[in-house]
Amino acid sequence: MKTTLNYAIENLGSKLVSAGDYKETYLSLYSFSTKLRLLKEKGWEIYREMANKLIDKENVPDGEISYTIHNILKMSDDIETYLE
To answer: What's the Cα-to-Cα distance from 39 to each of 30, 33, 58, 66, rounded to whole Å?
Structure first.
């Protein structure tokens, strides 16, 4: 997820963050939230919301997209973090 997001960011050049192609990151994050939903009753919603912001970026302010990207890049690589 972070790799595809970094790739999308690198390809932005001088374009606005909302012009990025985040389809691959969206798919990974959506899948992650779906798997987490099977394991936990609560907490998975935030990742689904982040995924939706990436795919529906035309309706999301650039600042929110930037904040979402920042939060995705800060996500822990330790899966146990999400199961607590």
So the answer is: 15, 10, 32, 29
pLDDT along the chain (84 residues), means of 10: 92 89 96 95 94 93 94 94 88
Of the candidates 79, 84, 70, the one whose C-alpha atom is nearest the C-alpha of residue 2 is: 70
User: Tokens at residue 41, please?
Assistant: 């009753």
Continuous H helices in 1-79:
2-10, 23-39, 45-55, 62-73
One-character DSSP codes across 26-37:
HHHHHHHHHHHH
Q: pTM of the entire structure? A: 0.88
Domain definitions of the chain by residue range? 2-10+20-83
How big is the chain by its Cα radius of gyration, in Å?
A: 13
